[in-house]
Write a structure and sequence with these properties.
Elements (H helix, E strand, L loop, with lengths): L12 E2 L1 H7 L2 H11 L7 H17 L4 E5 L11 E3 L1 E3 L5 E3 L3 H5 E5 L15 E6 L5 E4 L2 E10 L8 H21 L8 E15 H4 L3 H6 L24 H16 L4 E6 L5 E6 L2 E2 H21 L2 E4 L13 E9 L12 H20 L1 H7 L21 E2 L3 H10 L12 E2 L2 E2 L13 E3 L4 E3 L9 H22 L5 H15 L12 H10 L7 H4 L6 H9 L5 H46 L6 H34 L2 H29 L10 H4 L2
Parallel strand pairs: 2-9, 16-19
Antiparallel strand pairs: 1-8, 2-3, 4-5, 6-7, 7-9, 8-9, 10-12, 10-13, 10-14, 10-15, 11-12, 15-20, 17-18, 19-20
Helix pairs in contact: 2-3, 5-13, 8-9, 10-12, 10-13, 10-14, 11-13, 18-19, 18-20, 19-20
Length: about 675
C-alpha cells in the first residue's frame, strides 16, 4: 500500500536519481563530474540529458520549457519556449537540444540592472545551474539558471551565491584539513528558511487599493482585538486554513520540497511554514517556489496571501528566518558543539570565525536584510532592530570550560524525569530579540523580511566567513599543535569581537545606548544601509573572492536605491488616490448626514465639528504630500532623492495616516466602505 505522503513526492522534479534512471550510466557519470566541477559538460552529454528531460516533461503534460531565474527584482522570472518545432518538410516535431538546455537568451533591457545594461542593450544570457534540479509548474519545465550580461556580469541573485558557496567550501576544507580531517573534500552551507505570511479574504482584499498595489494597508485604525490575548499563536488552525495548508503541502511535496512545519503565528490571520534544511542554493530556490505556491493556492481558496513585511499596523509583521549552518561531505555539522574535546575545539574555531565575520561586516548584514518594506518592521516588537548583535548564551563559556577540563561532561545539563518522559536542559535559552542567535547547532538570522530573497544575505555570510576561515588557516598552517593553536586563536577572535556579543533584550532602549557605547554601527533605514553597498570594505571583500566587481557593486546599489524611490513614491501616490477618491467623499457624506438631521443635539454638533476638522486636516495634508512629491522629484535624483523621501515623504504619510485613522474610528458604518482591520483580521 502506498503512503499518501510519499506517493507523489518529487513527482514534478527531474532529480539526480530520476536522471540516473533515464540516461545511460556513462552519461550520468559525466553529469556527476560536471556537478562536482571535475569536468565540463560536453554538448553530446547535454543532448542526451536534454532528450531525457524533454521526454519526462512531456509525459507529465509539459508543452514548454523555461530558464527559471532570479533577477534583481527579488522575484523569479521565466520566458516560456515551446518544445514544438518543424522538420525540413515543415512538419511539426518536438525538439529540445543540449544547447537549449545549457544556455538561453532573455531580454535584459527591462529588468533592473543598475546601469549594467542600457535600455537599448537587450541581450542577457541564462546558464543552467546543474546543482538545482529542474521542476514542472503548470505545463512548463523550469530549468533553474543564472542570469548574466553578454560580458558575464551578474544580473541576478543566484550567480553571486554560487560563487560564494565555492569560495566558502574551499576555505572550510583547508581549515578542516589542517585540523586533521583529511577525508573532507567539500563543505556545504545548509539553510532552513521559515516563511511567515498573512491570509485575508480575497473579496475584502479586492476592496482595498493599497493592499493590491503596495501589499500593505497605508492606513487603518487598530483592530479591537489584536494579539494582546496571545490566543492566536500556536492556536487551533481554522478549518478553512487547514484546507489551504493541505493543498500547499501537497503542491510542495510534488516539487520535492520538504514542507514540514506549519502553525498560527502571533498576529491574527498570520501563519508560518517551514521546510527541512537543504543546500543553501536549493533552499533559496525552493523558498521562491514556496512564495509562489502560497499565493496561487490562496487564490483558489478565496484568500489573498500577503507577503509584505508589515501589512497591518500595531500588530506583528512577517519575517523570513534564515537558519544557517555548515555541513561537510562526511556529514559533520561544523556548528554542532559536539561531546568530545576534538568536536568542541572544531566548533569553537568555526563559531569564532562566524562571530568575527559578523562583527567585521555587520553593515553588509543590515544591507542584505534591508528594504523599504522591511523598514516598517525592523525595530518593532516582533523583529530585531537594525543593530547587529550575536546571542550565544553560555555556549562559548561552557565549551571553553569543557576544553579546559576533559573530565567535565554534560551531566550538569541533564534534566529530570517526569513519569516516563525525559526533560533535558539546553546549554542556553533562545533569545528571540537577537538579530543573530545561536540555536543549538545553527545560527538563526531573524532580520530578513518575508517578501525578500535570502540570496544576498547568504552571499554576505558565505563570503565574510570564508575570509575569516582563510585568516585562521594562515595562522594555523605552521603551528605544531594545531588543536591548541586553534583554541587560542578562537579565543583571540572572540575577544576582538566581544562588542557584538549580547545576551539581553535587543528591543530595549538601554541596548541601543549600549550598542552606541560599544561602537557598533546603528543603521536606521534601508536607504542609509545603501551607503555601505559599495564602500571600500565591501569592495575589498567581494573583489578578493571574485563575488562582485566594483561595477556590479555600484549597479546593485543603484538597483536598491531605485527600488526604494519607486516603492515609496508608489505608496504616496496610492495613498493620495485613496484619499481623493474614497476617504474625502466618505467624510463629506458623513457631514451631510449630520447637517441634514436638523437636530440641535450637542453630541451631534460636536461630531459635525470633528468631521469638518478632519476633512480640513486630511485635505490639507494630502495636498502637502502631492506638493512635496513634486518638489523633491524636481530637486533631487538618485540617492539624494531617496534620502529626501525618507526625511520628508514618509513623515508626511505618517501624519496623514493619523488623521485617516482618526476618521475611521468615528465614521458611519453605512458610509465607510473600506474593509477595516476588524473585518480583515478575523
Amino acid at each position: 500500500m502506498k503512503n499518501c505522503l510519499f506517493e507523489d513526492f518529487a513527482s514534478l522534479v527531474f532529480s539526480p536519481s530520476l536522471m540516473k534512471e533515464r540516461v545511460s550510466a556513462d552519461v550520468y557519470e559525466l553529469f556527476e563530474k560536471a556537478l562536482k566541477n571535475e569536468a565540463q559538460l560536453d554538448l553530446s552529454t547535454a543532448n542526451k540529458i536534454a532528450l531525457a528531460m524533454k521526454e519526462w516533461a512531456m509525459e507529465k503534460g509539459c508543452t514548454h520549457y523555461a530558464h527559471w531565474f532570479l533577477p534583481l527584482t527579488g522575484i523569479s522570472a521565466e520566458k516560456h519556449e515551446a518544445f514544438i518545432s518543424r522538420d525540413k518538410d515543415h512538419q511539426p516535431i518536438t525538439e529540445f537540444s543540449g544547447k537549449s538546455l545549457i544556455k538561453g537568451e532573455s531580454d535584459a533591457s527591462s529588468l533592473p540592472s543598475g546601469g549594467l545594461r542600457e535600455t537599448f542593450e537587450a541581450r542577457g544570457y541564462n546558464y543552467w545551474d546543474l546543482t538545482s534540479p529542474a521542476f514542472i509548474r503548470e505545463n512548463v519545465l523550469c530549468i533553474p539558471s543564472v542570469f548574466v550580461s553578454f560580458n558575464g556580469e551578474a544580473l541576478d541573485k543566484k550567480y553571486p551565491l554560487l560563487k560564494s558557496i565555492d569560495v566558502l567550501s574551499k576555505q572550510s576544507v583547508a581549515l578542516l584539513n589542517i585540523l586533521g580531517y583529511k577525508d573532507v573534500s567539500s563543505i556545504t552551507p545548509v539553510l532552513g528558511l521559515e516563511q511567515e505570511y498573512f491570509l485575508v479574504d480575497r473579496p475584502l482584499y479586492k476592496q482595498r487599493l493599497d493592499l493590491q498595489i503596495t501589499g500593505r494597508t497605508l492606513f487603518g485604525a487598530p483592530t479591537l482585538k489584536g494579539q494582546e490575548l496571545n490566543d492566536h499563536y500556536y492556536g487551533t488552525i481554522p478549518t478553512r486554513v487547514i484546507a489551504f495548508m493541505k493543498e500547499v503541502d501537497e503542491e510542495l511535496w510534488k516539487l520535492g520540497i520538504y514542507a514540514q512545519t506549519e502553525h498560527n503565528e502571533a498576529a491574527p490571520c498570520q501563519f508560518e511554514l517551514a521546510p527541512l534544511f537543504d543546500n543553501v542554493n536549493i533552499s533559496i530556490d525552493q523558498n521562491q517556489i514556496i512564495m509562489d505556491v502560497l499565493k496561487r493556492v490562496a487564490y483558489k481558496h478565496g484568500y489573498a496571501c500577503l507577503l509584505h513585511e508589515k501589512p497591518f499596523d500595531k500588530i506583528n509583521g512577517s519575517g523570513k528566518h534564515n537558519n544557517y549552518s555548515l555541513v561537510s561531505n562526511t556529514g559533520i555539522n561544523l556548528f554542532d558543539p559536539g561531546s568530545t574535546k576534538e568536536e568542541r575545539g572544531r566548533f569553537l574555531i568555526f563559531s569564532a570565525c562566524f562571530i568575527s565575520a559578523i562583527a567585521s561586516y555587520s553593515e553588509q548584514i543590515v544591507l542584505a536584510c534591508s528594504s523599504a518594506a522591511n523598514d516598517y518592521r525592523l525595530g518593532a516588537n516582533e523583529a530585531p532592530p537594525a543593530v547587529i548583535s550575536v546571542y550565544m548564551g553560555d555556549t562559548i563559556q561552557s565549551t571553553l570550560a569543557m576544553l579546559a577540563d576533559e573530565k567535565l561532561d554534560d551531566a550538569k545539563h541533564k534534566g529530570a524525569m517526569y513519569g516516563l518522559s525525559y526533560v533535558p536542559k539546553d546549554t542556553a535559552d533562545r533569545n528571540r530579540t537577537s538579530p543573530i542567535a545561536f540555536t543549538g547547532n545553527k545560527f538563526e538570522l531573524r532580520s530578513l523580511g518575508s517578501s525578500m530573497s535570502a540570496s544576498f544575505l547568504d552571499v554576505v555570510l558565505n563570503t565574510a566567513l570564508a575570509e575569516k576561515i582563510e585568516e585562521a588557516c594562515e595562522y594555523l598552517k605552521d603551528k605544531k599543535d594545531t588543536f591548541k593553536a586553534a583554541v587560542e586563536y578562537a579565543q583571540e577572535l572572540l575577544e576582538k569581537s566581544s562588542a557584538i556579543l549580547f545576551d539581553g533584550d535587543c528591543y530595549s532602549a538601554k541596548w541601543r545606548a549600549e550598542a552606541k557605547k560599544r561602537g557598533l554601527t546603528i543603521i536606521n533605514s534601508s536607504i542609509e544601509a545603501c551607503h555601505y553597498a559599495d564602500d571600500e570594505k565591501a569592495s575589498r571583500l567581494y573583489n578578493k573572492y571574485g563575488i562582485f566587481n566594483d561595477t556590479e557593486l555600484k549597479a546593485h546599489k543603484g538597483v536598491l536605491i531605485d527600488q526604494y524611490i519607486k516603492y515609496t513614491a508608489l505608496e504616496a501616490k496610492t495613498m493620495r488616490k485613496m484619499v481623493n477618491n474614497e476617504i474625502i467623499p466618505y467624510i463629506i457624506e458623513d457631514i451631510n448626514i449630520c447637517a441634514n438631521s436638523f437636530s440641535t443635539s450637542a453630541h451631534l454638533l460636536k461630531r459635525l465639528e470633528k468631521l469638518e476638522n478632519l476633512l480640513d486636516d486630511i485635505g490639507t495634508k494630502n495636498d502637502e504630500l502631492e506638493e512635496c512629491l513634486l518638489k523633491l522629484n524636481q530637486k533631487y535624483k538618485g540617492e539624494k532623492l531617496a534620502l529626501a523621501y525618507r526625511k520628508e515623504i514618509i513623515p508626511l504619510m505618517k501624519e496623514l495616516r493619523t488623521y485617516l485613522d482618526a476618521y475611521e474610528q468615528i465614521a458611519s458604518a453605512a458610509v465607510y466602505k473600506l474593509p477595516t482591520y476588524d473585518r480583515l483580521l478575523v
